[in-house]
Design a protein that fits this description.
This protein is α+β, with helices and mostly antiparallel strands. It has one helix and six strands. The protein has a domain of about 50 residues. The strands form two sheets. Strands 1, 2, 5 and 6 form a four-stranded antiparallel sheet that branches.
């Protein structure tokens, strides 16, 4: 069975001005990792981190689903 990413989920922060950004965390090796995933198991694993970001920053954290797939290019 082939797996295909037809939708993605992203944890999105919203600041006091209403501006949004993709949440991220520092992973192993000091590399920033965006909080974007393609299945609910990963969403569930990132949810505690999203709650911690809200506690630290006071910003709203939203879980957003993007579900329209459109091909842009192949690299």
């Amino acid at each position: 069975m082939k797996l295909r990413v037809d939708e993605i989920f992203a944890f999105v922060s919203e600041d006091a001005d209403g501006d949004e950004g993709i949440c991220a965390f520092v992973g192993e090796g000091g590399m920033w990792m965006p909080m974007v995933c393609a299945d609910m198991a990963r969403v569930d694993s990132l949810r505690p981190m999203a709650k911690a970001i809200k506690q630290k920053t006071g910003m709203k954290i939203k879980l957003v689903r993007f579900s329209k797939r459109s091909f842009v290019e192949e690299i």
